[in-house]
Amino acid sequence: MRITTVAFFLSLSWSLWSQDGIHLRVNQLGYLPGDQKVAVVFSGKKTNESFELISAEDQRIVQRFKATPAQVASWGTIPYHYQLDFSSVTTTGSYRLRSRRTGKDSQPFRIGPNVYSELPGQLLEFMRQQRCGYNPFLDMVCHPRDGRVMYSELPDSTFVDASGGWHDAGDQLKYLITASYATGHMLMAYELFPDAFGDEVNDLGQPGANGIADVLDEAKWGMDWIMKLHFAPNQLIHQVADDRDHRGWKMPDDDISDYGWGPNSYRVAYVATGEPQGLGKYKSKATGFANVAGRSAAALALGARVWRDLLGDEAMGDQYLAAAKSLYALGRENEGYQQGNSYGAPYRYNEETWADDMEWAAAELLKTTGEEGYRVQAMRYAREANTISWMNQDSASHYQYYPFVNLGHYALYDQVPQSFQDTLANYYRNGIEYTKQRAERNPYGIGVPFIWCSNNLLTSLMTQVILYEEMTEDKQYHSFLVDQREWLFGRNPWGTSMFTGVPASGEYPLDVHTSVYVMTGEMVPGGLVDGPIYHTIHSLLKGLVLLKPDEFAEFQNGIVTYHDDVGDYSTNEPTMDGTAGSMIMAAYWATQGGD
Q1: Are 23 and 10 within 8 A, CB to CB?
Q2: Mean pLDDT (whole number) for 410-426
Q3: What is the pLDDT of residue 21?
Q4: Is 337 helix (H, G, I), strand (E, B) or coil?
Q5: Which of 7, 179, 199, 589 has the least CB density, counted as fewest CB within 10 Å?
Q6: How far apart, in whole angstroms, are the C-alpha atoms of residue 535 and residue 556?
Q7: Total Cβ atoms within 10 A of residue 247
C-alpha cells in the first residue's frame, strides 16, 4: 500500500507542477551580508520567467534578474531547476523573492549580521527538553530508578545510580554512544566560539543566569552522567534501557515500559564488556569498547580544561581529568567497538569505528596535561583513523561510522609538527572532496548520501569544513559549506527548515515523532530532525504509517522523501545527538556577522 500511495502522489505532483508552475526555495533563516545568496527555483516546464527581490518593509523592488539554469537541471520527477543569485544585496532588512509574471512569492527571509545569533540558544532549548532526571521543560523528575546492571562484575540486577543524562530522541533510551559525543561537541563549540553563547538559565535549566554559559551547563549535565556511568575503575555503563521502551506515546515520569521490575520502575543498565550483548533474541556486535571509553575520556579531558582554565574551578577540573585518564586507560585495554543493544527488534546503533575516539581522547589529554606520551599515542590513532568515514562511502549502515565527524583530527592539529599537520588536513580534505563530487549530481549542491539521519551527516560535513578552515585558513570550500547550510533552513524541495521552531515565522517541522510533542502539544525549538532519506529506503520501512495527508506530496520527487508527520519515525524524529552535533556549526554562523 505504501508504494502504491507514493506512486499516486508522484503522479499527482507532476500534474500540480504543470498547473502551478514555479516554486521558489530560499534559506528562511536568512543570510549574512557577505554571504553568497542563491535561491533555487523549480518548475514542471521550462521557464524564461524574470524575478524581483522585494523589500518586506516597504514593498520596494530592490533588484530584478533572470533565472539561470542549474548545473543539474532535473532531479527525479522534477524536470527543471534554476538559480537566482542575489549575492550583491548586502543591506540589512527583510525580503522575499517574487516571480514577475505569475506573482509567486518565496518565503520571507532576512539579511543582516545577526540572523544566526539566536540559533545556538535554540539548540540548547531542545537539549534541555531531552534531559532525564530533572527535566526543566516538563518541570518533573523521571526515571530516578535507572538502573540495574547487566554484564557487570557485580551480580546481575545490582542497582547502580545511572540517573541523569539525556533521552536519545523521541524515545526515552539513554546511550553513552551518543551522549559522550554530544557532551564533547558542545564543549568544543564553546572553546572555539565562546561569544556565541549566552547565560539565560541555571545548571538545572531553569530561567535565571548563574554566571556560566548555558552550553557549559548543558555539557556538565552530560559530564556528570558519564562520571556516574564509570562507577568503578574497570566498569562503564554504555546504555540504559532498550527497545522495550517502545510502547507508544508516554510521559517520561509515567513510563509504562517493563524491564522485569514492573512498569515505571527500574530499567536495565548495560555494562560494556567488548563482547556481543543482548538479553533477547538479537545480539549486538562488539570487539572492544574503546569507542565509548575514548569519546567519554575526550569529553571529560576537554571539560577538565574548561573548568580549570576558563572557569577557575580546579577541584572540579581535577575530578574530570582523573576520570578522563581512567577511561582512556580502559579504552587502551579494550581497543575495539561496543554497539548499542536491542531486545525485541533488530535495529541498533551499528558503530564499527573506535580509533578516531581514542585519537580525540589522547589529543584532549595532551592539551590538558602536556604529557608527551599522549602525543605519540594520538598520532598513532590518527594514522589508524585516517579518512575512515561515511563521507567517502556511497552508503553505510545505521551509525556505522560514528561520530559522523572525527573531532580528533582538529584537536590534535596544533599539537604536532607541520608535516603531520599536513597529514591531518589531508584527511579532512579527502572527505570534503568526495562529498563535493557527490554534490555536483543534484541541483541543491548537497554532498551527503540520503541514508537514515541524513541531517546529522549534513551538519557533520559542515563541521568538518569549518574545522578545516580553522586549521588551515583555506577557504576554497566555503561556497560548498554555504550550500549545505541552505538546505537545512529551507532551500530544499519541501521548503522547510530541518530544525523545530526555526525560524519562528517560517515553515519548520511541527508534527514530530516524539512523545513530548504528542502528549503535550507543545513544540520546543532547536531540535534537528533525522531528515530526508532515499525513497528506496523509505518505502521498505516497517510500521511507518502517515497520520495525516502529506502536505509535501507534490514535492516528493521519487529520489528523496521527507514528511512532517508524527507517524514518520525515519525522517521527522528530532534527535539529541543530531542537535548537539549541530552546535559547532550554529556557533560558527552566529559569530560570523560581526557586531
Answers
A1: no
A2: 98
A3: 83
A4: coil
A5: 7
A6: 9
A7: 14
